[in-house]
UniProtKB/TrEMBL annotation:
<feature type="binding site">
    <location>
        <position position="15"/>
    </location>
    <ligand>
        <name>substrate</name>
    </ligand>
</feature>
<feature type="binding site">
    <location>
        <begin position="47"/>
        <end position="49"/>
    </location>
    <ligand>
        <name>substrate</name>
    </ligand>
</feature>
<feature type="binding site">
    <location>
        <position position="186"/>
    </location>
    <ligand>
        <name>Mg(2+)</name>
    </ligand>
</feature>
<feature type="binding site">
    <location>
        <position position="2"/>
    </location>
    <ligand>
        <name>Mg(2+)</name>
    </ligand>
</feature>
<feature type="binding site">
    <location>
        <position position="7"/>
    </location>
    <ligand>
        <name>substrate</name>
    </ligand>
</feature>
<dbReference type="InterPro" id="IPR036424">
    <property type="entry name" value="UPP_synth-like_sf"/>
</dbReference>
<feature type="binding site">
    <location>
        <position position="53"/>
    </location>
    <ligand>
        <name>substrate</name>
    </ligand>
</feature>
<feature type="binding site">
    <location>
        <begin position="173"/>
        <end position="175"/>
    </location>
    <ligand>
        <name>substrate</name>
    </ligand>
</feature>
<protein>
    <recommendedName>
        <fullName>Isoprenyl transferase</fullName>
        <ecNumber>2.5.1.-</ecNumber>
    </recommendedName>
</protein>
<feature type="binding site">
    <location>
        <begin position="3"/>
        <end position="6"/>
    </location>
    <ligand>
        <name>substrate</name>
    </ligand>
</feature>
<dbReference type="Pfam" id="PF01255">
    <property type="entry name" value="Prenyltransf"/>
</dbReference>
<feature type="binding site">
    <location>
        <position position="19"/>
    </location>
    <ligand>
        <name>substrate</name>
    </ligand>
</feature>
<keyword id="KW-0808">Transferase</keyword>
<keyword id="KW-0479">Metal-binding</keyword>
<feature type="active site">
    <location>
        <position position="2"/>
    </location>
</feature>
<feature type="binding site">
    <location>
        <position position="167"/>
    </location>
    <ligand>
        <name>substrate</name>
    </ligand>
</feature>
<feature type="binding site">
    <location>
        <position position="51"/>
    </location>
    <ligand>
        <name>substrate</name>
    </ligand>
</feature>
Length: 228
């Protein structure tokens, strides 16, 4: 969800105004994805590298995310959306915010509609390192490690591989996002900044994805995997 700061700067507003404006897009895209039949939606809200931003901006983001979570929890529950949080390992995360994440996960845990994963304090490399440590602690012999077994030690191992990554604002980087899961993802890079991104733009990205020929290393039109 890229471009909040640039959105604000183009309007001669503080960067925090861009983060505030992003809330409407978040809710719009969640609703659009659910209505379109998307089963799994992941939002990259805060990376392990985002801790390098100015302290005042980070503090504002923490307060904003807490307000958004508490404000929209009833809507997410009513829509049958199961909520999860990926990351949330850094001790700098305010305790109240971490508790709100846990409460929302528990509150919506029995929902069977779309699964919404919010990547917060997330880093793909850290996930891989933690999975390796988990395998070592389990005493698994090196020659018994397979891709399938390794994936079972990643956070939320029932999460399917990513089919489509949408990165707004025209930036074209992975930025440490779910590195294991995006191995065969399709990518779309809309030029719109995140606060200007809306349901029709999201649906256009889905149409672009559906027109792609996903070969998974095979020949054109050869079935080599489940594109879902």
């Amino acid at each position: 969800m890229d471009g909040n700061g640039r959105w604000a700067e183009r309007r001669s507003l503080p960067r925090t105004a861009g983060h505030n404006a992003a809330e409407a897009t978040v809710i719009d895209i969640i609703e659009a994805a659910r209505s379109a039949g998307v089963g799994w939606l992941s939002l990259y809200a805060f990376s392990t590298e985002n801790w390098n931003r100015p302290g005042a901006e980070v503090d504002h983001l923490m307060r904003l995310v807490r307000r958004v979570v508490r404000k929209h929890a009833p809507l997410l529950l009513a829509r049958g959306i199961r909520c999860r949080f990926l990351g949330v390992a850094d001790p700098r995360i305010p305790r109240d915010l971490a508790r709100d994440f846990e409460d929302l996960t528990t509150l919506t845990g029995d929902n069977r509609g779309m699964t919404l994963t919010v990547a917060f304090d997330h880093g793909g490399r850290r996930d891989i390192v933690e999975a390796a440590r988990s395998l070592i602690r389990s005493g698994t012999p090196a020659d018994e490690v397979t891709e399938r077994l390794f994936a079972e030690h990643l956070p939320w191992p029932d999460t399917p591989d990513v089919d489509l990554v949408i990165r707004t604002s025209g930036e074209q980087r992975i930025s440490n996002f779910m590195l294991w899961k995006v191995a065969y993802a399709e990518w779309v890079f809309p030029e719109l900044l995140w606060p200007d991104f809306r349901a029709p733009d999201f649906l256009a990205c889905l149409h672009t994805y559906r027109d792609r020929d996903r070969r998974f290393g095979g020949l054109p039109h050869q079935t080599n995997g489940d594109a879902r």
